[in-house]
UniProtKB/TrEMBL annotation:
This is SDR family oxidoreductase. Belongs to the short-chain dehydrogenases/reductases (SDR) family. InterPro entries: NAD(P)-bd_dom_sf (IPR036291), SDR_fam (IPR002347). It holds the Pfam family adh_short. Keywords: Oxidoreductase.
Amino acid sequence: MASPSSRYDLTSRTALVTGAGGLLGRQHVAALSEAGARVVVTDVGLAQAEAAIAALKQNAPSADLIALAIDVTSFDSVRAANEQLSGRGVSVDILVNNAAIDPKVTSAPGVTHSSRFEAFPVPQWQTEIAVGLTGAMLCAQVFGGAMAARGRGVILNIASDLGVIAPDQRIYRQPQVTREEEQPVKPVTYSVIKHGLIGLTKYLATYWAGHGVRVNAISPGGVFNNQDPAFVERLTRLIPMARMADVDEYRAAVQFLCSDASSYMTGQNLVIDGGRSVW
């Protein structure tokens, strides 16, 4: 029987993280690299991927990281990336679908916010769905399909606590904004995409259950990143642990879900939100 620590060992496995240039994307890369994986660091532009690698190398100079540009909204781009890796003898064992557009909720008096549902632009809906949900589907098609053909692999979809609960729009309200139609809100797309990722997780987990591919999701709560103190105060009132997450607090969960430590787990959504969804 393998020791508990060895079940987390990802040595000899290759992981690919989409949207890896972002705040949590870099953390996912670091988590997988810490566990011994070679990590393909991808973003829509090669410069973003290379910048993420440069930052990560400062603390882990020996990390085995590969920069690659992928437009997750394009099947041709995803397929070309897979072919490029295959040409270098690289097969993806772990796919982390992290790419997303997370609109920041801001407000300025006198501005009618397109984030409000009644005025939400269809092009914005299509763009955000294309990145956050269609992109995960396309990457799963290409990289997950190859895993299924080999009989082994792991897919981790990065959802959100807002894929489990609805946004509490009260935490985004601005007291200086007097007209209700100008109050900022979390856009409809974010919750729809994150709920959709959990549905995609369950679908793929059963679809590939007989092909050795496990598919799970993680639903993180909000990460503290020097947000407006008033917003942080309103949000933390909704969280039993009374704080937002530190940026590195999801690393162990990623290691667990991407390794043999979770070998009998598939189709599940691991909620790590400080207890917010319990209340």
